[in-house]
Inverse folding.
């Protein structure tokens, strides 16, 4: 999903959810925990251009998504 660094993540429920963003080399560049919300807005403009892996950890599920910041 190409974008400019502002990313909105739609969550399945309002339970605590951990969101981490990694470079393709595995370096953590962003980390947050969200609860009581159905959407989380991530500001990745400081991460710079590149391809990143977003890890979304919910109560019983872990989802990975690849994003492109250009």
């Amino acid at each position: 999903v190409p974008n400019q660094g502002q990313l909105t993540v739609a969550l399945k429920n309002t339970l605590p959810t951990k969101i981490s963003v990694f470079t393709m080399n595995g370096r953590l560049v962003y980390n947050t925990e969200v609860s009581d919300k159905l959407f989380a807005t991530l500001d990745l403009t400081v991460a710079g251009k590149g391809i990143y892996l977003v890890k979304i950890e919910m109560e019983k599920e872990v989802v990975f998504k690849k994003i492109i910041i250009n």
Observations:
- The beta strands are 2-3, 6-10, 17-23, 28-34, 39-43, 50-57, 62-69.
- The two ends are 10 Å apart (CA to CA).
